[in-house]
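dumping the sequnces here before i forget
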Amino acid sequence: MSGHSEDTVAEESKRFFTFFNLSMILVAITGLEIVIIYVQSFEGSIIIGVLFVTSILKFIGVIWWFMHLRWDKILNTILFLMGLVIALGTFFAVIFMADEHPVVEEFKVTQIENEWKSETKYKSGDYVYVNEKFYQANIDHTSDNNWTKELWNEVTGIPHLISWKIINSADLIEINSKKPENPYYYQYTPSDEESIEENRIALLEQPGSTEDFRIKVRSESYWVENN
Amino acid sequence: MSDAAAHALDHHEPVTSTGIPNKKVLMWAFLGSDCMFFGTLISTHLIYRKISATVGGNFLDIRDVFDIELTSFSTFILLASSLFMALAVSAIHKGNLNSTRWMLFGTIIFGAIFLACQVYEFTHFVHAPGNELTLSSYRGEPHVFGSTFYVLTGTHGTHVAIGVFWLIGWLVYSFTGKMSAAHAIDVECCGLYWHFVDIVWIIIFPVVYLMEYAF
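..and the predicted 3d for all of it:
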């Protein structure tokens, strides 16, 4: 080959040491990343911070020296940065679009087993258990000494109280039974998405407990469920 | 006369209005667009990793299937290949054809080792007893991790494979006796592509692999 000036040869010879040194630095930084992971004595946020910084350093090292941006005209850097900025913009937009993970702090299903009692105040909608049957109060009243069905409606099914409390926002809540022989399904959209602490009476065919039910909570980015 | 213009004259390249060979401008524009491509794939992986944090009711712990020693080895190999590539570009600028051949050969070998590691890794992941990670499931439970992971790392692997074939092309061409100073810019473009593949891995390695061990 011909046509190479002495300047070019001298310049490329000098770059040899730059490339070699850079390569050693890149290997050392990668080694540091791996060591940090192996020793496992740092907080997760510290590890992520270190990985973020070391990756940027390696990235800059390669594009600046190996890819000759250090010696090239600015146009090449601009062309590359245009793509890189859009890529980073996409990355951060997507990452920060995700909302907080909803947490099911409390979920309980309990059977209502209130025995009817004399001279007790009952509110409309209260459930009682009398003679192996369940009844719901028609109106607010105070019970007599003897049981009478006049103020009560017999209900088909076993009343259960389902209660739940959700931390962080949720826009859809779904509760269903895990047992096909004891079906139940309820889905609703909370009116207040930020503070959710509610309960509901369910009339079931069989007695059930919390373990027999599942609650699923949806937010903008997540679907979580209790187990 | 600027460095770039002097370089262009050295290699008998046509003078352009930008002062940069058109092939090089084209390559940088392509790399910028490829940045967006990988940016999308990496974002997709991270967002689904965050959203689908559980599998079968338990937190997804992918460390049971990852082989960090092997992946670390691959990373060092790819970094070393970048040094070979930079030296190959340097050698052809100096007109040292013999050195260019050896450096290209070194880059090809290291690139091939990286690919072999990735093939082994994928095979190991898919068939890991009790920890099978397929495109659509993990440990037999439906999960999206395999999809985003294989698409991201597989796309990077495809880029490496294209780079290896491109380098083989130049290595073979160097033995035809037709390789001259005019081809320095072509090898340089090939080098830019190879270094880009390296910087993409510089991001993928901590973000996809090491981050799993942070918590």
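Residues 85 and 135 of chain B are 33 Å apart (CA to CA).
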